[in-house]
Write a structure and sequence with these properties.
disordered C terminus, single chain, four-stranded mixed sheet, 13 helices, binds zinc ion, CBS-domain, 2 domains, 381 residues, alpha/beta
């Protein structure tokens, strides 16, 4: 949706990214606070004061949303689940965990930390507003605003839909009672989807009743929640299909290798066109020095193929992204898709023992998927 997120900071090892939609909301929020909200609640300030107060309130709201996300991240990290990044977007934020929680209790703790933090922020800023009182009207207005919005955020995030925290809280409860992460995800995703449709229906009725803007918001949030619920259950299916598979199960051990001095022309004729390989190891007496892929070859003008040694155009060993043989298959898939890799060498104790190609990986997933038991058979999307 509207382009890519961009990084703004790295805090405690977690990359903080902002989605362009958040900037739009920040601008809209600053404007509506400065031009509409505060002029109504606090009369008699100068235009400049409204804008300073409005913009400060919007930016501080941004900070409190970030604190909410860091609460999730802190609990996850303390429990040994890495959080590489946090993305702020139109509805707030998402903490990206590189792995699913391992128990219902863990999921509950991580999910509940966010709304709990929002409620604490609401209480603290509310009390601070009370303490400041009339002595500083501007600070009081900002504090009460933060208290109100954080209370709303806490409630909104407890709605039972993915990717909202409430969806995860619901899943953790279903997980504890069914004992199956997979079934719990399906239950939580269905509830989230149903909830999304309900919001859309409500939005439609609101719009018909004349509340067009509110109706559109409900429609939009509902549409977003149904999509997210479906995405979550698909991602989870993939993860459970790949459960129990590791890089060593996906690799090809008979990867061909060529010597560093072999001309590119010979590699193309004998291995690529000849045998259909898209990548070859370049090895010297069994020690891998690099990978030569079709993409590397394409960068060399055809006329130079006969006099260019493989070594000169290959991707050298130190620039190759590799995985350990014990890496879970799902992580390999994430790595391959995130980095756009066509092949990943598999290492065991520093030695290369196999090669996973993107094509081979996708074939394996398809095969595993077609043989997986307990996959829902309704294919209505
Ligand atoms: Zn949250």
């Amino acid at each position: 949706m509207f382009g890519r997120s961009f990084p703004i900071a790295r805090i405690a090892g977690v990359l903080v990214e902002v989605h362009p939609s958040w900037l739009l909301i920040l601008a809209f929020l600053s404007w509506s606070l400065s031009d509409q909200v505060f002029p109504e609640t606090n009369e008699g300030w100068s235009t400049a004061t409204y804008w300073v107060v409005g913009t400060s309130a919007a930016v501080l709201l941004f900070v409190t949303v970030l604190v909410h996300e860091f609460a999730h991240a802190a609990v996850a990290i303390r429990r040994g689940l890495p959080v590489p990044k946090i993305t702020l977007f139109i509805f707030g934020g998402v903490s990206h965990m590189s792995r699913q929680p391992r128990s219902a209790g863990e999921e509950f703790a991580i999910a509940a930390a966010g709304p709990a933090t929002s409620f604490v922020i609401a209480a603290v800023t509310g009390l601070a507003g009370l303490a400041v009182g009339g002595s500083n009207e501007q600070a009081e207005a900002i504090l009460y605003y933060l208290a109100g919005v954080n209370a709303v955020l806490g409630v909104f995030n407890l709605l039972p839909g993915f990717p909202l925290d409430g969806g995860r809280v619901l899943r953790s409860i279903a997980w504890r009672s069914t004992g199956s992460f997979r079934r719990a995800t399906r239950i939580a995703a269905s509830v989230g989807e149903l909830f999304g449709y309900t919001l859309m229906g409500g939005g439609f009725l609101l719009a018909l009743g004349g509340f067009v803007v509110q109706g559109l918001w409900f429609l939009f949030i509902g549409w977003f929640l149904t999509g997210a619920a479906r995405g979550e259950s698909q991602g989870m299916q993939l993860e459970s299909i790949l459960a129990g598979l590791f890089a060593r199960d996906l690799m090809d051990e008979t990867f061909p290798s060529v010597t560093p001095g072999l001309p590119v022309q010979a590699v193309v004729d004998d291995y690529m066109v000849g045998e259909g390989h898209r990548a070859l190891m370049v090895a010297n007496d069994g020690a891998v020095v690099g990978i030569l892929s079709v993409n590397d070859v394409r960068r060399v003008p055809r006329a130079e193929w006969p006099n260019t040694p493989a070594q000169r155009v290959m991707t050298p060993r130190e620039r190759i992204v590799s995985v350990d043989a014990a890496t879970p298959a799902f992580d390999v898939l994430m790595l391959v898709s995130q980095k756009g890799l066509n092949q990943v060498p598999v290492l065991e104790e520093g030695r290369m023992v196999g090669l996973i190609t993107r094509r081979h990986l996708l074939d394996r997933i398809q095969l595993a998927e077609s043989l997986a038991p307990d996959v829902p058979t309704d294919t209505n999307e």
